[in-house]
Amino acid sequence: MADGVGGGPAGDLASAAFLRRLAAAHVDVRDEDDLHERLRGANWDLRAHVVRDPSLEGMATTFTGIVVARGGGILLGHSGDSRAYRLRGGTVTRQTRDDSLVQALVDNGIIAPEDAASHPRRNIVTASLTGDENDRIGVARADAVAGDRWMFCSDGLSDYVAEDRIVATLARPLKPRRAAQELVSIALAARTHDNVTVVVCDVADGEPDAGERPQFYGAAAGLFAEELEDLGELD
């Protein structure tokens, strides 16, 4: 999941371009270094857009997502303040740390965690993807257990809905699509002033469908509806 960074130009293009390139390239990921390289490649696409159109200088996006590695296991990539949560055995834990000014203030004991959501500078990120070779992208390995549920959300949810409400909703016995819809509805009811994106998926045993095609939503669907040129790698 990618969320265009506000305050700069073309956040929708940045998020869509990054996801499109990543979807075309991440099919067979071996390990953390491999995923990191592919994330870097997708990030370079943003720079290519700016080179073609200098008015896009400064566009940026967050990214949080998982990839199933060759041989099993999950790799988690993260940059920015979009979040990942995991539900396992009835317990929900956050799997990412916000790259944000407010998180740094909390970490240094300057503000209390409960004050972060209402801080006037909560939207300032300290890491994002801009196409620059020095952009910071974290990659970590996580074990894959059948029955786990993962949820990814933009700050349109996490900045306006208390984390305990998010956790309680994610822990309910809902199907993935329904859980995502419920979280979006809660954010809208909380009068969020940002776009809200929620992705929910479950870990299951078995082999993936080799013929399944990537599906894009939001800006990625609107801006890059054409077929991926190297989609044949999925066959």
Task: Outline the structure in words.
The protein is of the alpha+beta class and 235 residues long. The chain has one domain (11-227): 4-Layer Sandwich (Phosphatase 2c, domain 1), CATH 3.60.40.10. The chain has helices at 11-25, 32-52, 101-107, 155-158, 163-170, 176-189, 219-223, and strands spanning 63-68, 74-79, 83-88, 91-94, 138-142, 149-153, 198-202. α1 crosses α2 (32-52). Residues 227-235 have low confidence and may be disordered.
Explain briefly what this protein structure is:
The strands form two sheets. Strands 4-3-6-7 form a four-stranded antiparallel β-sheet. 31% of the residues lie in helices and 16% in strands. It has a single domain, classed as Phosphatase 2c, domain 1 (4-Layer Sandwich), CATH 3.60.40.
Outline the fold blueprint.
Elements: H1 11-25, H2 32-52, E1 63-68, E2 74-79, E3 83-88, E4 91-94, H3 101-107, E5 138-142, E6 149-153, H4 155-158, H5 163-170, H6 176-189, E7 198-202, H7 219-223
Antiparallel strand pairs: 1-2, 2-5, 3-4, 3-6, 6-7
Helix pairs in contact: 1-2
What is the assembly state of the chains in this entry? single chain
Q: Which band does the percent of strand residues land in?
A: 15-25%
| H and E order | HHEEEEHEEHHHEH
CATH top-level class: Alpha Beta
Total number of distinct structural domains: 1
Q: Can you list the strand order of the major beta sheet?
A: 4-3-6-7
Individual helix count: 7
CATH superfamily: PPM-type phosphatase domain
- How many strands, which pairing sense, and closed or not: the largest β-sheet? 4 strands, antiparallel
Uncertain parts: 227-235
Shape: globular
Strand pairing plus helix content: what structural class? alpha+beta
Radius of gyration: 17 Å
Task: Classify the helix fraction into a percent range.
Answer: 25-40%
